[in-house]
Design goal:
Blueprint lengths: L6 E5 L4 H16 L3 E7 H10 L10 E6 L12 H26 L4 E7 L4 H8 L3 E6 L3 H8 L1 H6 L37 H18 L4 E4 L7 H6 L3 E3 L22 H7 L6 E5 L8 H14 L3 E4 L16 H5 L3 E4 L4 H5 L4 E6 L3 H9 L4 E3 L6 H12 L2 E3 L10 H13 L1 H18 L4 H14 L1 H4 L3
Parallel strand pairs: 1-2, 1-4, 2-3, 4-5, 5-6, 6-7, 8-9, 8-11, 9-10, 11-12, 12-13
Helix pairs in contact: 3-4, 3-7, 10-15
Bound molecules: uridine-5'-diphosphate.
InterPro entries: Glyco_transf_N, UDP_glucos_trans
GO molecular function, one term: quercetin 3-O-glucosyltransferase activity
Family: Belongs to the UDP-glycosyltransferase family.
Length: about 475
């Protein structure tokens, strides 16, 4: 009897905001009887498997493996230029080897490679090995549309061949799509010019591979970005892909989550708590960190604050003098929260966020209004969605000295929570986002079509 299963590879970029959504997507495939080999880099594999306590959460159809990223263990993986170059030099050959081994030793040969677009080289590998492939994008459709439009942006004089913006003129990819500041293009705000150049070259290579794939899947919803999906019909929405939407736990964390904060939330009044989290990558300088601490104190409201290891450059974080005594039990600080559960908790009033796309979707999906504090990459464009298009949040702005002051934090929180408009807009948006993944919703339909395609065994398994 032929026991061969449909067997796909899923390969995320080695960053928290990329691993979580692709792992969520992979679990949807597993639910449909598809075998998934999920490939992390060795470092992220170790992090993900060490926090993944309940192994039963994953089916036997999910296999987690790792490949080296080409850097020494001690090297700085926040140096995006270095990491990008190392990955390019090392991982393609390792992936070829892995696929050959699987095809020789496993009951089921690899039938499709699903690659995070930031790992676009994996699509080239699959193409050369004549394996079907699909592109997965964990961020907004407009960010992907900008990336795929790189040649137009060069031709229109918006940026040069290295991806460096040439002017400050706000542009749109089509008259109805969101306005974009050239400086906010995701590759243009990730570091110095050398980093932009290296990352941009990787993006160009990825874009060339992506347009040749049959499926370009975005963790977004038609309702959230209708203009972009209309103008770029090759992009397909399959989101929001959130564990909470299938009543499961979020998997793929790099840090152990502190669930005790949920009990603390249970004790707070409904719609009272400010939740503050900056995702996995943001670094604040010490002065800004203290200003934020003071701002939260000034609000006089309960707050749950994620102070992730490495949130400041110092080895230990320092709070303003006497801070903990003054805020007492009104403030709860954790190093990593079960964020999707926090955002769905009735005590949460608003989300002070760095506007990473996953955090943005998670807030939207729970109807929580935002205070926006973007740090880098696509986060400035996500802020534009929140503040100017969806109008479910307010932006925090740096003063002339480059600081977001405690006073501003207090006054913006008050403004956000004293006007019902933001909450009303957030709730209306939630309805739309959730409707896309319900039965018959646009994302659900695209996801089902994709699963159907992947299951067409006869198309990609020889006899
Ligand atoms: N996250 C979490 N607990 C935290 C902070 C973040 O579970 O305390 C999760 C969050 O739910 C999201 C991801 O980490 O799924 C962060 O992704 P995002 O795109 O928002 O930001 P990035 O880390 O890529 O900057």
């Amino acid at each position: 009897m032929n026991m061969e299963k449909i067997h796909v590879i899923a390969i995320p970029y080695p960053a928290q905001g990329h691993v979580i959504p692709l792992l969520e997507f992979a679990q949807r495939l597993v639910k449909h009887g598809i075998k998934v080999t999920f490939i992390n880099t060795e470092v992220t594999h170790k992090l993900v498997t060490s926090t993944w306590l309940e192994k039963d959460d994953f089916s036997d159809l999910m296999q987690m493996v790792s490949l080296p990223d080409g850097l020494e263990r001690w090297e700085d993986r926040n140096d995006l230029a270095k990491q990008t170059e190392a990955i390019f030099q090392t991982m393609p050959a390792k992936l070829v080897e892995l696929i050959k081994t699987i095809n020789k030793e496993d009951d089921s040969k690899i039938t499709c490679v699903i690659a995070d677009i930031s790992m676009g080289w994996a699509l080239h590998v699959a193409e050369n090995m004549e394996i079907r492939r699909a592109s997965f994008w964990p961020a907004s459709a407009v960010a992907l549309a900008s990336l795929l439009s790189f040649q137009t942006l060069i031709d229109d004089g918006i940026m040069n061949h290295d991806g460096v913006p040439l002017n400050d003129n706000i542009f749109q990819l089509s008259p109805t799509m969101p306005p974009i500041k050239p400086a906010n293009l995701s590759w243009a705000c990730i570091g110095d010019l050398a980093t932009t150049k290296i990352v941009f070259q990787a993006i160009v290579e990825a874009a060339k591979a992506v347009i040749k794939t049959e499926w370009i899947l975005c963790n977004s919803s038609h309702h959230l970005e209708s203009e972009t999906f209309s103008h770029f019909p090759q992009l397909l929405s399959i989101g929001p892909l959130l564990a909470s939407n299938r009543l499961a736990k979020q998997a793929g964390h790099f840090w152990p989550e502190d669930s005790t904060c949920l009990t603390w939330l249970d004790q707070q009044p409904a719609c009272s708590v400010i939740y503050i989290a900056f995702g996995s990558f943001t670094i604040l300088d010490q002065a800004q960190f203290e200003e934020l601490a003071l701002g939260l104190e000034l609000t006089n409201r309960p707050f749950l604050w994620v102070v992730r290891p490495g949130i400041t450059k110092e080895t230990t974080v320092t709070y303003p003098e006497g801070y903990m005594d003054r805020v007492g039990s009104r403030g709860r600080i954790v190093s990593w929260a079960p964020q999707q559960k926090v955002l769905s908790h009735p005590s949460v009033a608003c989300f002070l966020s760095h506007c990473g796309w996953n955090s943005t979707l998670e807030g939207v999906n729970n109807g929580v209004p935002f205070m926006c504090w973007p740090y880098f990459a696509d986060q400035f464009q996500n802020e534009t969605y929140i503040c100017d298009i969806w109008e479910n949040g307010l932006a925090l702005k740096k003063n002339k000295g480059g600081v977001i002051t405690a006073e501003q934090i207090k006054s913006k929180v008050n403004q956000l929570l004293s006007h019902t408009t933001f909450k009303d807009n957030a709730l209306a948006l939630k309805e739309k986002a959730v409707s896309s993944i319900r039965n018959g919703g646009s994302s659900e339909k695209n996801l089902n079509n994709f699963i159907q395609w992947i299951k067409e065994k006869e198309n990609h398994l020889s006899s």
